[in-house]
Design brief:
Layout lengths: L1 E2 L8 E2 L8 E9 L2 E8 L4 E2 L3 E2 L13 E2 L6 E8 L5 E5 L9 E2 L2 E2 L3 E11 L4 E11 L2
Parallel strand pairs: 6-13
Antiparallel strand pairs: 1-2, 3-4, 5-7, 8-9, 8-12, 10-11, 12-13
Length: 136
Amino acid sequence: MFINPNAHGGEFLLNPEILRFAWFALYLLDPDSFTVSSMYCDCNAVMPTAFTPNDDGLNDTYYPIFDQGCNITGYSFSIYNRWGQRVFYSQDPNAKWDGEFLGTRAELGVYMYYFKYMAGIQNNQHLIKGDITLIR
């Protein structure tokens, strides 16, 4: 974003990296100052490909990682084992799977997840399916 504030006598560059797409509104408060506010167009989620619930404090839980500032609604997150049994389910965006199923450690291996949520300016629905590897 280039800004040309006449009060400061020249152009300067703010935040040259593109972190995500957004709508920006520029509000002129007076001839010498302004504010910029943004509204994110969409909120993306990143799903890790593996986790290690071995109580070492690193990667012990599995959960989606959202862009900062996202307002998430309509959240539903399920994880299934290779026999199609649902081993984890939550409608809480802050909930994390700890690698347990029916009170015991889940088996090592590949699990499938099905994850949907609504977010962004237009409250777009997102559906993400994939697999996660549980390693100990």
